[in-house]
Amino acid sequence: MNNMSESLYELSSDYQLTLDNLMDMLDAGDIDEQAFLDTMEGIEDEVKAKATAVASYILNMRSLAANIKEAEANMAARRKSLESKATRLSDYLLSNLEAAGIPDVQTPLFAIKIKKLPPSVVVAKGAVLPDNFINRKVTETPNKVAIKNYLKEGNELAGVELVSGKRLEVK
Q1: What is the pLDDT of residues 87-130, one digit of tens each?
Q2: Nearest 5 degrees, angle CA 116-CA 119-CA 123?
Q3: Contact partners, residue 114, CB within 8 Å, separation at least 6
Q4: HSE-up of 33 (CA within 13 Å, CB side)?
């Protein structure tokens, strides 16, 4: 065993291989039980030390990801605030240019023009429309709760199975 320079994968493989070899040696009487336990404890400590290092790295990545997520939320809030201010100022400028009767302003930096928009449809809340003016959206998704309960009762569905996964918890 070569301590922390080996990967966790290598240490895990070495651990299993050494365990198999030592079991054979123990069964053959080549080593006593105490030597077996001492050797396995040393190898197990190396695996645990590497696992601790990997878990620390996982926690660090999760912390960094959380910090990035918070920064993204702050930037999104700032962007929305700036967009809102720009919209309010645009409405303010439009309103005042219209009130003053000034349809356009030419500057060396840019041109400001009041433009007429094409008509848009505004449907009042609660308006009753004929069917030919209604778009229907239908989405179908599996009811996984019902399916899970059905399968747990011992029933079968083609193409469906209950799968139990595993996850790593690092606290």
Answers
A1: 999 999 999 999 999 999 999 999 999 999 999 999 999 999 99
A2: 140
A3: 94, 97, 98, 103, 104
A4: 0
d(C-alpha 159, C-alpha 151), whole Å:
12
Distance CA 54, CA 41 (A): 20
**How far apart, in whole angstroms, are the C-alpha atoms of residue 75 and residue 45?**
45
> For residue range 70-96, what is the model confidence (pLDDT) as tens digits?
999 999 999 999 999 999 999 999 999
The two tokens of residue 139 are: 């989405």
As beta bridge partners, residue 113 has 104
What tokens appear for 89 in the block? 């100022």
Locus of tokens 């439009």: 94
The token duo for 59 is 């926690």
CA 61 to chain centre: 13
Backbone angles phi, psi at 15, to 5 degrees: -60, -50
Give me the amino acid identity at 76.
A
- Count CA within 13 A, CB hemisphere, residue 121: 5
Q: What are phi and psi of 136, to 5 degrees?
A: -110, 135
Angle between helices 33-100 and 8-28 (to 10 degrees): 160
